[in-house]
Queue: 2 jobs
Job 1
Amino acid sequence: MAKKSGGRLVSSAGLVNYYDSDDHRAIHISPTAVLVIALATGVAVYILNLLF
């Protein structure tokens, strides 16, 4: 059997981990804020659905 040269992982398939990036220009939103916004949007849609 032929030995593969190089130390790259075959299973990675060219995927890049972007979560290790420390870009200070990126928008940072806390998970709590996402849940609050989603809950508020759901309640607003529910109320509008009841009214119309």
Job 2
Amino acid sequence: MLANSFAIILLSLIVGIPPLVFLFLAIAHGHFDNIGNTADSIFEAEELRYSRPWETRQQAEERMRQHGGLLRNPQQEWERWL
């Protein structure tokens, strides 16, 4: 019983420590310093201007200040998620 427990603990450490090391290296090198721009990087510039029905007025105004006037989504892409 003890040998099996030791093997499981050892394998868990071998599998679990490298991801933690890489996570801490990424944090140390600043890869998580600006999460907001990373989150917006999946959008094209025009998509950031589409109106989003679930946003509050304050969120829409903030996006207008950052990206210009809001557009009506021509393909009504958001409605399928509502």
